[in-house]
Design brief:
Number of helices: 10
Low-confidence stretches: 1-27, 299-305
Number of strands: 11
Radius of gyration: 19 Å
Shape: globular
Strand order of the largest sheet: 3-4-7-8-9-10-11
Order of helices and strands: EEEEEEHEHHEHEHHEHEHHH
Bound molecules: iron/sulfur cluster
Mean pLDDT: 88
């Protein structure tokens, strides 16, 4: 996920409550509802990305550091972030219409949700959008924390310009289970990278966010870089944690409960983010070079989660 501006970016901000149909709960007690949208292709402020498609609002992966949680206030729900998903049931119909008037520009799935979160197994909206995009010559970028993307390999192969990024915060499955309770374990994400790479699909890893204390040690970064290299990822990029109040307080609670040893690192980084980022940058410059990856090879492009 990467937040992308105003609530209008969601394309559903004006839908009334009458359009909102409750459907009960799914995996992990998720509250799933259907809510049609007014547009599928939304202009993006992310560098290098022309448009975003977010087939869902909310995200069942429920990452505790998620920056998109602020979007909750635009969605008319009081549910905790990670406990609800709104399904844009008409997104592919809207996409067909939006494509008639869009420019030739890169399309990203997705910017404020995960296009392959668990409900996608049932609703298949991302697959449906990909099927439509495959009939165009638009370049496409996918970013996910799920190996469900492998289901759509047949479609991915139809694109001349497509890349699949995997957001990976830690290579440790046990840690990820706590940080990202609804997402595919990182070991499976690396396995998916290997399969996609072997099939000729361009893949990359996005360490996002780098979490102070937990994810910024040389050992933690090396684990991800080494796994990425072995799996065939062509690039690795990173995004330091932004100490938003909600992300900071969620991480503090989780650290207190599970890994108190990481607390000083988090507190220091949030107290003095410039110094922390600078130290991380120096470490990354050395490690990325060692693993043969360019660092920020394309600053203008920017990267989502
Ligand atoms: S996968 Fe992305 S959008 Fe979903 S909860 Fe995690 S960080 Fe947020």
């Amino acid at each position: 996920m990467r937040e992308s501006g105003s609530p209008g970016a969601w394309g559903c901000e004006s839908i009334s409550d009458q359009d909102h149909e409750e459907h009960g709960t799914g995996d992990r007690g998720l509250k799933i509802s259907e809510k049609p949208c007014r547009s599928a292709l939304v202009r993006s402020g992310i560098p290098g990305i022309g448009y975003c498609i977010n087939p869902y609002s909310g995200c069942g992966h429920g990452c505790i550091y998620c920056y998109a949680s602020f979007m909750k206030r635009f969605l008319g729900t009081g549910e905790p972030w990670g406990s609800f998903v709104q399904v844009k049931t008409n997104v592919s119909d809207r996409l067909v219409k939006d494509l008639r008037k869009c420019r030739h520009d890169r399309v990203m799935l997705s910017s404020v949700t995960d296009p392959y979160q668990p409900v996608e197994e049932v609703y298949r909206l991302t697959r449906s959008c990909l099927g439509i995009l495959a009939g165009t010559d638009l370049p496409v970028s996918i970013l996910t924390k799920s190996d469900l993307v492998l289901r759509d390999l047949d479609l991915l192969k139809k694109f001349s310009d497509i890349e699949v990024g995997f957001s990976i915060t830690t290579a440790d499955d046990r840690i990820a289970e706590i940080l990202e309770p609804g997402a595919t374990p990182p070991s499976r994400r690396f396995a998916a990278i290997a399969k996609l790479s072997a099939a000729g699909i361009r893949t990359w890893v996005f360490i996002a966010p780098v979490i102070p204390g937990l994810g910024d040690s040389e050992g933690a970064l090396r684990e991800i870089l080494g796994n990425a290299r072995s799996a065939g990822a062509l690039d690795v990029e990173y995004d330091p944690l932004n100490c938003y109040p909600s992300a900071r307080s969620n991480l503090t609670s989780i650290f207190k409960k599970n890994w108190p040893e990481f607390l000083p690192g988090l507190e220091e980084a949030c107290r003095n983010p410039a110094a922390w980022r600078s130290g991380l940058g120096s470490k990354a410059a050395r490690l990325w070079k060692e693993y043969g990856y360019p660092l920020h090879r394309d600053e203008k492009r920017g990267r989502p989660d």
